[in-house]
Write a structure and sequence with these properties.
Elements (H helix, E strand, L loop, with lengths): L20 E4 L4 E4 L8 H11 L12 H17 L2 E2 L6 E12 L4 E4 L5 E3 L5 E4 L6 E11 L5 E2 L4 E2 L10 E5 L25 H10 L4 E6 L1 H4 L3 H8 L3 E4 L11 E6 H10 L4 H7 L8 E27 L4 E11 L4 E2 L9 E2 L2 H21 L4 E8 L7 H8 L8 E6 L11 E4 L7 H10 L4 E4 L13 H5 L5 E2 L1 E3 L7 H15 L15 H19 L13 H9 L2
Parallel strand pairs: 8-11, 11-12, 12-14, 16-19, 16-20, 20-23, 21-22
Antiparallel strand pairs: 1-2, 3-15, 4-13, 4-15, 5-6, 5-15, 7-14, 8-15, 9-10, 15-19, 17-18, 21-24
Helix pairs in contact: 1-8, 2-8, 8-13, 10-13
Length: 558
Amino acid sequence: MIKRSLLIFVFPSLVLAGCTKIEEENAGLALPEVAAPDLSVETMKSITEELSSDAYEGRAPGTAGEEKATKLISEKFAEAGLAPGNGDSWFQDVPLVGITAKNTSPLKISGGKSDLSFTYGSDYVAASYQEQPKVEVTNSDMVFVGYGINAPERGWNDYAGIDVKGKTVVILVNDPDFGTESLEGEFGGRAMTYYGRWTYKYEEAARQGAAAALIIHDTEPAAYGWNVVESSWTGEQFYAQSANGGADQTKLNGWIQKEAAAKIFAAAGQDMTAQMEAAKKKGFKAVDLKQKATVALENDIKKTDSKNVVGILKGKTRPDEYVIYTAHWDHLGRCKPAPDGDDICNGAIDNATGTAALVALAEAYVKAGAPDRSVIFLAVTAEESGLLGSKYYAENPIYPLSQTVGGVNMDAFAMAGPAKNVVVVGKGKSELDAYLEAALKRDGRVAEAEPTPEKGYYYRSDHFSFAKLGVPMIYFEGGDDLVDGGREAGEAAAKDYTDDRYHGPKDEYDPNWDWTGVLGDLKVYYTVGRMMAMTEDWPNWNEGDEFRAIRDQSRASN
């Protein structure tokens, strides 16, 4: 999944003891203290190195790399002392279909001031959600639909007054409030809403009956460069299996370079910049570009049952109440080669480190003894394909979501060293903030809101699959204010990873990494989850949060 690309981690020296209570003034919660965990850096190193080796070929679902990865994780869970989490099985099958585009034609645009042709990969990318051996969009009328949003509750509909059935819609990335400074506006001000996510835009285009949907790539509102789009979209794409083989989806979804899109607008006699500004205003009317799009591709189709790996440590006194840890084991498999010819996206940081953390935490929990509540350790598949593994578990839970107290998501560790802060993705959304703040307080560190809420990180990792069904989840990242070098050093480390390794073949294991910051953050992950597993409280979403109502409803059913 395209998400935040660098997590810079803090170094807490948590020394907690006993079973006394800590009064949290703001939250009104009594949080249990927990003993400092016994965490193994060797576990972190060895599993990260193994999972990200070339032998696993980038851990794409449905490959030999998946078989090796899920076997390793289950073995390590067993060695740590967990029990199988799905009856007597370590696995939950996740039905997927893998579709690999081949023989992709240029994207040809006709009917404007001049005919245009764009090259697959460098100018545009596209894939089909439909399980068809060949997909063609021929002379499809093109319509610019602004941000491609239909939000009745906000009085906003970019599709109002126009029928796009069988047409190709051109869409802006992010949402209309992008570029504002405050957190107030039709769509949350600076903070991206789900309407800004590319997944929503394709979903809505399909509901509107469009034949194809093209999102205009723009680095700042997208939060990643074209290199990330190209590497993520030019290989096998995975989708959840459906009864109709994706027949209700658009024929083609894709991205187009901003410079290429500007040429399309110019050929239509339109100023793209002016239209982008117009799209920010309520009442925007879709623009018929008076051009036609033609593109075709062939598909290799493979159905597979991918696997979530599930282990459990049964609780001592309330085993039917659950705390969940999540991390995704998958990565991109083989991808666009680096200049040296390396075509394996190893995914060492993203997310072999997070998977290793599940095992290291399991070891620490078992050594400390079972807490009062049961703890689930869930390594999910197909995060990079749209959170498919976590979505499947959340919609088909092995353990009832109404009895799941809350959870912690881990999505990539970085090696930038200790920091003075952590960054909470979705700070202020739930009472779990109090658990994190209690864990940080002992070291004089702080939890800060993400500095760029406009990038929509909240919707880009596996916690979201649980949150939207009501389960409080916390997802925090390492801080950008490094102990050694401050924010300047943190920003430099982030840029280096984003530009040179993220979602590319150079996200590889380095034996010279400094793991002190990683271990420090791992202590925080442990402490937050263990607090949930030892308290009698049921933390909730804060009043007014979008997920509060569904949580209240699920808990009322118990």
